[in-house]
């Protein structure tokens, strides 16, 4: 009963990266929060981060291969550019939930399109680290 939590480029710098937009929590802080909530929900959580698009795609395939219950993914800027991530989401039956700390729709125009969102069962955005928690609660309902 595992949930993959995949994080894309620059999210390794959370905590110091544009804190006025992304807050002060680090990715390790978010992982700890998710593991706590996962314990309550009876879900194992596997949090990963990569700055490389192909790693995210390989991990989506792996989630399918191991029968993960869901994928939570914050693809960072690949959200707005990557048809390959969209195709990966469409190529697997594992449900994908899109997560963002900020609300890209209230930001620059180039953040308004989300490719992965076209194949996501749900998008949770704008809640800071709580976006991940809400997404995990949604995964538990699947
Ligand atoms: C983000 C929003 C994206 O537009 C941006 O490129 C990120 C982070 C978020 O979590 O708010 O890297 O996905």
- Write the CATH fold name: Rossmann fold
Number of strands: 5
**Into which percent range does the helicity of residues fall?**
25-40%
Q: Given the helix and strand composition, which structural class is it?
A: alpha/beta
CATH homologous superfamily classification: Dehydroquinase, class II
CATH architecture: 3-Layer(aba) Sandwich
Instruction: Give the mean pLDDT.
Output: 97
* Tally of alpha and pi helices: 5
Which regions have little confidence, pLDDT < 50, spanning 5+ residues? none
List of distinct ligands in this structure: 1,3,4-trihydroxy-5-OXO-cyclohexanecarboxylic acid
Strand content: 15-25%
- Regarding quaternary structure, what we see is single chain
How do the strands of the widest beta sheet line up side by side?
2-1-3-4-5
The outline comes out as globular
Question: Could you state the order of secondary-structure elements as H and E?
Answer: EHHEHEHEEH
**Rg (CA only):** 14 Å
* Main sheet: strands, sense, barrel: 5 strands, parallel
Q: State the distance separating the first and last CA atoms.
A: 12 Å
């Amino acid at each position: 009963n595992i949930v993959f939590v995949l994080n894309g480029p620059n999210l390794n710098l959370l905590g110091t990266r544009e804190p006025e937009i992304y807050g002060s929590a680090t990715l390790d802080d978010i992982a700890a929060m998710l593991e706590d909530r996962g314990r309550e929900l009876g879900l194992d959580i596997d949090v990963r981060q990569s700055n490389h698009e192909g790693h995210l795609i390989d991990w989506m395939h792996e989630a399918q291969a191991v029968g993960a219950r869901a994928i939570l993914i914050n693809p960072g800027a690949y959200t707005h550019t990557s048809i390959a991530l969209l195709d990966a989401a469409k190529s697997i039956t594992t449900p994908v939930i899109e997560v963002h700390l900020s609300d890209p729709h209230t930001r620059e125009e180039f953040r308004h399109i989300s490719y992965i969102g076209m194949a996501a069962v749900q998008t949770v955005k704008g809640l800071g680290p709580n976006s991940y928690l809400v997404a995990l609660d949604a995964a538990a309902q699947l």
